[in-house]
Design brief:
two-stranded antiparallel sheet; two-stranded antiparallel ribbon; 6 helices; alpha+beta
């Protein structure tokens, strides 16, 4: 069993609702919370039952972290390594040119602009 495993992920609330643990371990059920998010119910399972879930949970110590994944994914490149953000090949930034939209956004407004554009075109 992982030092920080699926039970810890659920107890601390850092789950993302992907449900992959329930695919790996069918005894895990997924419940909808009062906030509309999805949470695995692992309360009825023993440690041996959670080994497969630990092996696939992105927050478990049993799975590779972002730095380990990047080393595999970028093995044929020469990525930049930064102790604060990990490995990367390049950084880019942007913002919308509509001043009103940008003022209403929490950052550059690109996500809202893209979603609004896609939804308005029914694509």
């Amino acid at each position: 069993m992982a030092a920080f495993g699926i039970r810890d992920v659920v107890d601390t609330g850092i789950r993302v609702g992907c449900g992959v643990c329930a695919i790996a371990q069918p005894a895990i059920t997924i419940e909808r919370t009062d906030f509309g998010t999805f949470e695995p119910d692992v309360s009825h399972l023993g440690d041996d039952d959670l080994i497969r879930a630990d092996a696939v949970c992105p927050f478990s110590d049993s799975t590779p972290d972002e730095t380990q994944l990047a080393a595999t994914l970028f093995s044929d490149e020469d990525p930049i390594q930064d102790r604060r953000i990990g490995r990367y090949s390049r950084l880019m930034s942007g913002y919308v040119t509509d001043a009103a939209a940008r003022e209403q956004s929490s950052s550059g407004g690109l996500t809202n602009w893209m979603l609004e554009s896609l939804l308005s075109k029914n694509t």
